[in-house]
Amino acid sequence: MKVFVARQPILDRDHKIIAYELLYRKDSLYNEYDHTNGDQATADVIINTFFNIGPCDVFENRKCFVNFTENLLKLGIASYFPSDQIVIEILENVEPTDDVIEIIKELKRKGYTIVLDDVIYNQPFITSRFFPYIDIVKVDFQSTTEEIRNKIIRECKQWDIKILAEKIETLDEYKIAFNEGFHYFQGYYFSKPKILSSYDIPENFQSCHLILSELKNPNPNVSKMAKIIETDVSLSYKLLKMVNSPLYGTSHKIKSIQQAIMLLGFNEMEKWIFVLTIRDLKHQSNIHQDLMQMSLIRAKFCELYASKFGNEQNKSSYFITGLFSLIDTLLHRKMDDILKELPLEEDIKDALLNGKNEYSIPLNIIKHMERADWDKISCDLENPYKWEEELSSIYVEAIQWTNQYFQTVS
To answer: What is the model's pLDDT at position 197?
Structure first.
C-alpha cells in the first residue's frame, strides 16, 4: 500500500526554511486535504513520517509542524515525540477548556513549541486564553482583513508571540505581510506542498489490540507479546525500525523480536502501538495479505527447520529470517536499502541478501519448494534424500500453522 506525506516549508524574514509543516495526503493525484477525520490524518502523518518514509528524509534536521486535535492532545500523543523535532500545532476548533490549557502548560514546560492555528480573532476572549502558553500564532492571510490582522499583531506583541502568515499566494501578499511585521511565512507563493511517498504494510488491528491488552497487565508477558508480533510482518518491521531509530539510540544487533521488545521497553511499546491503533486499518489489499501469508509460512518453516535439525536455541533468528524474506516486495524497495535501517544481526542480513550461512539454508529450501524446484534443494543439503520426508512434513506444518493463524484473526 503506497502512502504519502506532504510537507510545506515555513520561511523566516531572511527566506530561510526554519521548519516544515507535515500535511496529510490520501494519494499523490490530488495535492489537497480530503477532509479525513483529524485524528486519523495526524496518526497517518506520524506513522508515514517516522516509520515508512523516515524523519530524516521528511524534515531534514528541521522541526516539523504537526496538527493536533483536542482528542489527540488529551490522549497525550504529542509527548511521544522529542520536543526538538516536533512543533505542536493546535487546530482552530480546539476549545481552551481548563483540561486543554493544563495539557498545553505541561507541554510548554517540557520544552515543546506551541502553535495556535488559523487565528481570525472573531472571539478574542477565547483565543487569548491560549496566549500565555503560545510561541507562534498562525494567521490565514486569505480569511483576514488588514484590520483584523493588526489587532492580532498588537495582541501578540503584548505576549511576545511570533506571528506566521499562512496561505501567502502572491508576491504582493508576501510584501504586505512582511511590511505588517509577520515573522514567518507559508504558502503557494513559496512552494506548494511537496509530496513524499513510500509503501506501508498494513498491520493487523487485532494484533495491536492484543499487545495493548497485555501491556495493561502489571507484569506484561514479553514472550506472549513477541509471539503476537512475530505473526505480523508489519509490526515486526516497525518494531525494528523503532529500535534502530535515533530517538532511542540503541546500537544492538537484534536476533529476536523478544530482544527488540526488551530493548525498547514497555512504555515506548505502548505509545507506538497506541498510535497504530488510531488509524483506520481496513484498507488491506488481497495482494498484501497473500504476501504476508507467504512471509509467515517461510518464517515458520525456518523456525521448524531450526528445531528439527539441532538449532533450537537460535530458532527465533531463523524465524526473523523467513519473516523478512519478502519485505522488499512488500515495501517496493531494494532489500539492501531496507536492511540498512534495521538493527538485525549480520548473519540474518547476509542470508536475506542471498549470502550463504546457516540461516540461508532453510530459506533457500522453502523458496525452491514454493517453485517446485526439487532438484535445487540438493545444493543446500548434503543428503537431501535423507531429509526429504522431514522437509515436506515441516512445510505442510508451516502452511497449516499459518492458515490457522489467519483464520483466527480474520
So the answer is: 47
